[in-house]
Write a structure and sequence with these properties.
Blueprint (H helix, E strand, L loop, with lengths): L1 H24 L1 E5 L2 H11 L3 E5 L14 H8 L3 E4 L5 H13 L4 E4 L38 H15 L5 H22 L6 E4 L5 H6 L3 E4 L1 E2 L2 E2 L2 H13 L4 E4 L6 H9 L3 E4 L7 H15 L2
Parallel strand pairs: 1-2, 1-3, 3-4, 5-6, 5-9, 9-10
Antiparallel strand pairs: 7-8
């Protein structure tokens, strides 16, 4: 009995060593936001070990990395960033890099033309405090467009420099092409091209498919009572009865407007970890909501 127990311990030890060896062979990659996690995993498969710094459900405008995440980052080979004015990267990037001087930073949005934040017509007026709105702010949410996602995936693949990932890269590109075609086929049949959102995260998706997002929130601040009324009037004029909200933000203001237009609030998540599944579901939702 004692010999059998010792044999089990030996087998467990060998198994643990084998797992550790396999883990050591993996490329350790940290990414700033969840969608980048899918990009990396689809390219590298079992050969990568991915750490997501802003976890699913967290707000990238306010999130602070934990000590355990910084420890993982200190052991990472690569750090994949969005490379746009997303708040988490603006605040934390220098500190993240300082944790690991040898880490290679991959700017996944390299080569993508950034656009200004889309704003409702009411935001183009001077606000009541006497300060002119800053229209030069760039929209950081580049990944919401499947076409941009293809560029980001290509940047990641080329920066990793591993030809063994080529088949994975090509297969994932085909899925992104299918996603792009799905959106095009759905939107081309719609007369209604405007949709209402709480947080303006869908500017690049809108640009790609000739849509217009009307946002309730801008620069982290909820709109004024006057702008709420303007949005309600616009929604009624455009026959919009759905407000899209993000799970990272309160839906209280969106619910107020939904009641005024006899509509509903639907959650769509620009930060979902399962990028292609999420965008496919959003395409299906647009198909049902847009007329």
């Amino acid at each position: 009995m004692k010999k059998k127990f010792i044999l089990i311990l030996i087998l467990l030890f060998i198994s643990a060593c084998s797992n550790n060896t396999e883990s050591d062979k993996q490329i350790k990659i940290a990414v700033t936001i969840p969608p980048l996690g899918e990009f990396v995993d689809e390219i590298g498969g079992d050969d990568v070990d991915t750490t997501i710094l802003v976890p699913p459900g967290a707000n990238p405008h306010t999130y602070e990395p934990s000590p355990s995440q910084l420890t993982l980052l200190s052991e990472a080979d690569f750090l994949v960033i969005v490379g746009t004015p997303i708040e988490f990267e603006l605040v934390w990037l220098d500190k993240l890099v300082s944790v690991n001087k040898d880490i290679i930073v991959i700017n996944s949005s390299d080569g993508i033309n950034l656009i200004e934040n889309e704003e409702d017509h009411s935001r183009h007026e001077e606000d009541h405090s006497g300060h002119e709105e800053d229209h030069s702010e760039l929209d950081p949410h580049v990944w919401t467009s499947p076409a941009n996602a293809k560029t980001m995936v290509k940047n990641i693949y080329e920066s990793l420099g591993n030809e063994d990932f080529l088949d994975n890269f090509n297969e994932y590109n085909e899925r992104l092409d299918d996603l792009d075609l799905k959106f095009k086929n759905i939107i081309k049949e719609k007369q209604q091209k405007k949709f209402l959102v709480f947080h303006p995260a869908w500017g690049y998706l809108s640009q790609e498919y000739d849509l217009t997002q009307i946002s309730l929130e801008h620069e982290g601040k909820e709109i004024t009572a006057k702008n709420i009324r303007d949005v309600i009037d616009t929604a009624k004029q455009e026959n919009i009865n759905v407000i899209f909200a993000s799970p990272q933000f309160s839906t209280e203001s969106a619910q107020v407007i939904a009641r005024e237009i006899n509509g509903q609030v639907l959650l769509i998540d620009p930060m979902d970890r399962n990028y292609t599944d999420n965008l496919n579901n959003i395409a299906d939702t647009f198909d049902k909501v847009l007329q």
